[in-house]
Amino acid sequence: MKLQNIGVVWKKEVIETVRDRRSLFLVFVLPFIFYPMIFAGMGFMMQRQVEKEKTLVVTIAVTNPAGAPRLVSLLREKEKVEVLLTNATSKQIQDGLIQGILVLQENLEEKMKAGEKSTISFVCDETDARSRSAAERAESVFAKFKEMVTQEKLKEIGVGADFLSAASFEKKNIGASNEAGASLLGMLIPYLIIVLIAAGASHPAIDATAGEKERATLETILVSSAKRTELVLGKFLAVLSASLASAFSGIVSLLLTFLSGYSIFSVSGDLKMGVTPMNAAAVFLMTIPVAALLSGVLIAMGCLAKSAKEGGTYAAYLQMAVILLGISAMSQEFEVGNPYFLLPIFNTSLVEKELLLGNFNPAHIVITLGSTIVLAFFSLLVAVRLFSNEEVMFRQ
After folding, report:
1. What is the pTM assigned to this prediction?
2. What is the mean pLDDT of the chain?
3. Distance of alpha carbon 82 from alpha carbon 133, whole angstroms
4. Contact residues for 248 (Cβ-Cβ < 8 A; gap 6+)
């Protein structure tokens, strides 16, 4: 095996990739459009939602207001709440005429003072944001009313109001505010970094194999002095370069988006960015084995495909698998056992999340790197075998 031949093939494929505007767009342009649109767009939408929530006026109909007049008075005093003293129906909620119905029992206040069990019903539509907001506001008003009635009852029996606050439950968060942002990023990484790696590698891999078949240039390469293994390795390194360039562009785009202050993390003051240059470097290093695995699999698929269109179909199914594995990793909120880190894509996503949170688990990293490298080597062997089989490469 001659490194010079591998280098010549790599250089040829890189030059062809650079000349292809589509590949350049996927590798160097798409990440700087994709990430800002997602994070800045999410931040903008969340900001608008927060502002709209503050100015949102809801209408609540009260059934049997005589049951608790003071509760109705507190509800009227609540900002951005309009009260209708009338019997309403669920259809009015569905039609958007009102956002909720507060149903009070007869003599509710007297029953509460007497210690009788009472229930207040609130009819709402959980699928509607305004109706959910109405339910939250009504619940907060009822909590205030309940506290007021309880204090009056305690005063009657000679117990001070401080009795209710004799003990309190206080939750202290030892996690830094940037860990919340890092946790969110860890869940999004399968969709952002790894999907972009697959997208950056798909077109060069299919073009270097099935595309060569369509252009009838594959025969010229095969009659050269380079061995089949050298040809595959050269193509593999070119595809790997494109996928890593896509990953690097994605990480740089992420950092620039977060540092710009126009992302989702700028909406809430207590949600800080969880990415540092050190975290980004560690995440990038973890993407190298998975990029090699995806590059090897895509080259093998390109060898099997009779045309670039067929190869693109195979690549689309591979990207679907990557997304599904990413979804599985995203749903893992609790620590999983070491065997789970043998699953490709899934393991890389979990380790990257740990790295973003500052949790460096040597066992998880070693298992993930080892298993992914073994699978990448196996996929490359399969690609070499397929590329060396003329019945596969030139089948009609």
Report:
1. 0.69
2. 82
3. 13
4. 284
